[in-house]
């Protein structure tokens, strides 16, 4: 009997990527992580993965900086846009359509994995599966960096359809409104989930800010961890 693998990708993102333009540039915290950990190494030999790459902002940045870059996303439309951008700028990356709960790359392969606001968009069970996959594809000593781990209590938390504790679908207000499923975190849960997946050396930081003239509050965690 063949067991069915969990599927994490929400098909709503295919529609979102088809209807709107996405950010073209990585966030400051992603740049800081890559610079601190990999800039001084032999960049062409450093293998980095953009997990849930979307239209390729992080992929573009890491490829432009000279690393051996791969990326995947469940949205064919997003992968197409990312491929077009790289092609127009003469950059190369191994881009694939795939699910974060079954990452389409070998075990012990990457020096670093970047999750730029992908993990949060899942249920708790899916997040557990994704973290195990991120752990699997990293080399021993490799690092996972996750940002966009949105906080319990920010604007939009508690709105829409409640799927489980801290997980809601079709949030009605704030920065995550109408973007499918969103899970909100606190520090205790972050430590539990990352440790359960096997990660060690957790470094947890956070950012809180207002948006839209102070009418929206945004807060999220960043976690750097090691296999």
From TrEMBL:
Residues 49-142 form the Methyltransferase domain. GO terms for molecular function: methyltransferase activity. SUPFAM superfamilies: S-adenosyl-L-methionine-dependent methyltransferases (SSF53335). Gene3D superfamilies: Vaccinia Virus protein VP39. GO terms for biological process: methylation. Keywords: Methyltransferase, Transferase. This is Class I SAM-dependent methyltransferase.
């Amino acid at each position: 009997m063949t067991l069915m693998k969990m599927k994490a990708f929400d098909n709503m993102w295919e529609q979102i990527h088809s209807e709107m333009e996405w950010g073209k540039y990585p966030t400051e915290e992603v740049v800081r992580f890559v610079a601190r950990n990999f800039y001084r190494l032999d960049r062409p030999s450093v293998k980095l993965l953009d997990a849930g790459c979307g239209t390729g902002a992080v992929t573009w940045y890491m490829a432009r900086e000279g690393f051996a870059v791969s990326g995947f996303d469940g949205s064919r439309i997003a992968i197409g846009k990312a491929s077009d951008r790289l092609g127009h700028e003469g950059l190369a990356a191994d881009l694939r359509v795939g699910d974060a709960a079954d990452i389409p790359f070998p075990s012990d392969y990457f020096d670093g994995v970047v999750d730029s606001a992908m993990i949060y968009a899942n249920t708790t069970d899916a997040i557990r599966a994704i973290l195990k996959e991120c752990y699997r594809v990293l080399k021993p000593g490799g690092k996972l960096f996750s940002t966009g781990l949105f906080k319990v209590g920010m604007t939009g938390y508690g709105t829409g359809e409640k799927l489980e504790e801290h997980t809601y679908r079709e949030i009605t207000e704030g920065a995550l409104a109408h973007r499918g499923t969103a899970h909100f975190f606190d520090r205790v849960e972050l430590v539990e989930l990352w440790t359960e997946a096997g990660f060690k050396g957790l470094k947890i930081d956070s950012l809180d800010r207002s948006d839209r003239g102070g009418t929206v509050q945004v807060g999220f965690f960043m976690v750097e961890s090691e296999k």
